[in-house]
Amino acid sequence: MAVAVSEVPVLVLDEDYRAVEMSPAFRAGCGLAPGDSALEGLPISRSTFVQSCEHARRTGEAVDLVEYGAGRLLHIRVVPRDELLHVSWETLGMLDTLTLDGLGASLRSLAETLAGTEDTLRRERLRRSLRLVGGGL
Amino acid sequence: MTGRAWTFVIDASDRIVQVGDEEPRGMAPFLGHALWEYLPHGEAVFGLLFEEARSAGVEVETIVYYAGATMNIRIVPSGRSLVVYATRRTELDVRTLGTLSASLRVIEQELGARAPAQPDRRALGSRQALP
């Protein structure tokens, strides 16, 4: 019987990008098991993911990225905690490849979602920078 | 990439009455059912072609997009039935924005080449929607 999964999938990675633990939602949506490398079978560019993780480790701050991969627009959030990285994935939209009409509509929808999300992330980054600047004064 | 052809026969009510040996997985259980149960939203893509073949009583061959690929479709009237030969051609490659854009370009060319007088602008519109 199919089980409805409503929580956001979360994956915890060690410094070698190996899965330490994962939420049931993540386990349901991927073939990873604890100990597996998360870099295999990533739906987005490996270099983009690794750069984001390295940035999160270096700065100690969460990194948000919105990326297209495997027919989906994903919001990925990387949060550094101690030596580990907590990675959550949220699907913002999916391509409908059944018919040309559906494909066109879903592409337009993904483009709009991407533009809106980028604006939100830009605003959030600006807000965070202003907070940092404000705190430093 | 041209794939293997598969064949099926539908009656005057678009019910699947025969499935070729090379049928894609899962079509056989739909024998006796409406084709549109097996091909959701397919009526908008194939319905007019079937009507054309039936009303004119002539073979119709064209290229359509359906279920993530362009398909070469040949429809041959046979009494009150239609024999349909379908071959998948170019798959939409959704892995990255680059592969998506490149495959949409090929699909657009294939659909544009099938009827120069009335090119299907939807493929172009799809590619232009890419972020």
Describe the structure.
The complex is a heterodimer of chains A (137) and B (131). Chain A has one domain: Beta-Lactamase. Helices cover 42% and strands 26% of the residues of chain A. Chain A has helices at residues 24-29, 46-59, 100-136, and strands at 10-13, 19-22, 63-69, 72-81, 84-94. By secondary structure, chain B is an alpha+beta fold. Chain B folds into two domains: 1-89, 2-Layer Sandwich (Beta-Lactamase), CATH 3.30.450; 92-131, no CATH class. In chain B, strand 4 (69-78) and strand 5 form a beta hairpin. In chain B, helix 3 (97-114) packs antiparallel against helix 4. Chain B is globular. The chains are: A alpha+beta (137), B alpha+beta (131).
How is this structure best summarized?
The complex is a heterodimer of chains A (137) and B (131). Helices cover 42% and strands 26% of the residues of chain A.
Most extensive interface between two protein chains, with residue counts = A-B, 20 and 22 residues
Kindly report how far apart the N and C termini of chain B lie. 26 Å
DSSP summary, beta strand count of chain A: 5
Helix tally of chain A?
3
Helix content of chain A: 40-55%
For the secondary structure, the number of strands of chain B is 5
Strand order of the largest sheet of chain B: 2-1-5-4-3
- For the record, give the distance between the C-alpha atoms at the N and C termini of chain A, rounded to a whole number: 58 Å
CATH C-level category of the largest domain in chain B: Alpha Beta
Total separate domains of chain B: 2
For this entry, what is the oligomeric state of its chains?
A: heterodimer
**Estimated helix fraction of chain B:** 25-40%
Structural class of chain A: alpha+beta
Q: Give me the CATH fold name of the largest domain in chain B.
A: Beta-Lactamase
- What are the secondary-structure elements of chain B, in order, as H or E? EEHHEEEHH
Strand content of chain B: 25-35%
